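Structure in, sequence out. Go:
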């Protein structure tokens, strides 16, 4: 069992979720049940699955939840790209959030590799 709160990837994914919540508050209200809802779910899913997986009994189970987390990170990246292309988000904000999401994707991948090599 890992203490998820000590994992840098969990900490960064929590920071990203907070940033996503703050940025999407500025999106049009007609996106409330579309893009906004999807982005919230994905942002929350990244850190939540890291936390859930860390509490499981084996590295294999942890890796399974990391793969779900990774999928959510890629989904969030896609939604951020879409919001940027639709000009719903300022380029600077969107680029920063995309970069942070990609960093988390790389960290999740590295953690998965670490668990595989144990």
């Amino acid at each position: 069992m890992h203490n998820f709160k000590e994992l840098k990837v969990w900490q960064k994914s929590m920071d990203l979720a907070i940033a996503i919540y703050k940025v999407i508050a500025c999106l049009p209200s007609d996106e409330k049940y579309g893009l906004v809802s999807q982005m919230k779910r994905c942002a929350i899913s990244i850190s939540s699955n890291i936390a859930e997986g860390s509490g499981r009994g084996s590295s294999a189970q942890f890796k399974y939840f990391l793969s779900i987390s990774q999928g959510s990170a890629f989904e969030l990246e896609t939604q951020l790209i879409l919001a940027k292309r639709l000009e719903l988000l300022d380029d600077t904000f969107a680029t920063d959030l995309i970069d942070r999401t990609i960093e988390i994707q790389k960290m999740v991948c590295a953690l998965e590799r670490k668990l595989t090599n144990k």
